Amino acid sequence: MTITFKNITKDYGGKSVLKDINFTIESREFFVLAGSSGGGKTTLLKMINRLIEPTSGEIEIDGQSINSLNLRDLRLEIGYVLQQIALFPNMTVLENIGLIPQMQGWSKEKIRSRVEELLPLVGLSAEKYLSRYPHELSGGEAQRVGILRALAAEPKIILMDEPFSALDPISRKQLQQLVKKLQEELKITTVFVTHDMSEAMILADHIAIIKTGEIQQIASPKELLAHPANDYVASFFENFQEDLSQINLSDLTGLISDENIAITNNSTVSDAVKALRTYQKANESGEI
């Protein structure tokens, strides 16, 4: 499903939080909203399932205004994953994952079958985990259950608001890889909010960089790295040098073809940022 933002604005107490937002998220793509805290990323995300209403403008899903859709049905049809999963403590894994399908009228047999189908996709055994309660799960396991709860009713869109920011680095990396794999296999339009550029680079088909309510650039990770639209986009990469040094360019092949830029597929993204900036400065000064 495509998601289109048309002339979206949002004001709080006379302050403009989002300013004339216009772009389209294509069907089945992994789209990341990135930028510094307070830039409007989460506000924009929550407008898709109408947890927040815009001051002006319109959002369409497959060409249909979301304001014309039944609000309950809209929210039930869109998966939603938060940083704090908040599983219901008195409900088992089966009951937590099956909650939305139950609200949609699925039979108990169909719900159980669906949960048993999903659990192995995130590395959890149905036999071991179906009857467990949230207090019996680790943080990473609870997050996996939360992701499956969002996927259980077979949504065409899933929204994820910094879902891994509270996890340890190992669990975070595992879940990044898992979510990307699930998204590609299930072909779900995914909108993901993060302030971490390294996470955005790993996951995204396209990234929108947002600063104080305005879109600075929308592009693929490769294009953003090679051709930042302005100083803010360039500096956003540079602020994550340590994290970017963990990403290898072998996953971003074909990024740069200019033989004057000394990087290879064995270089890290951090190496590439530094080499690109050095090359661009030399080129601008006429040294190349």
TrEMBL record:
Residues 3-237 form the ABC transporter domain. Keywords: ATP-binding, Nucleotide-binding, Transport. Its EC number is 7.6.2.9. SMART domains: AAA. It comes from the Bacteria. The keyword Disulfide bond does not apply. One of its GO terms (molecular function) is ATP hydrolysis activity. PROSITE patterns: ABC_TRANSPORTER_1, ABC_TRANSPORTER_2. InterPro entries: AAA+_ATPase, ABC_transporter-like_ATP-bd, ABC_transporter-like_CS, P-loop_NTPase. Belongs to the ABC transporter superfamily. This is ABC-type quaternary amine transporter. It comes from Lactococcus fujiensis JCM 16395. The lineage of its organism: Bacteria, Bacillati, Bacillota, Bacilli, Lactobacillales.
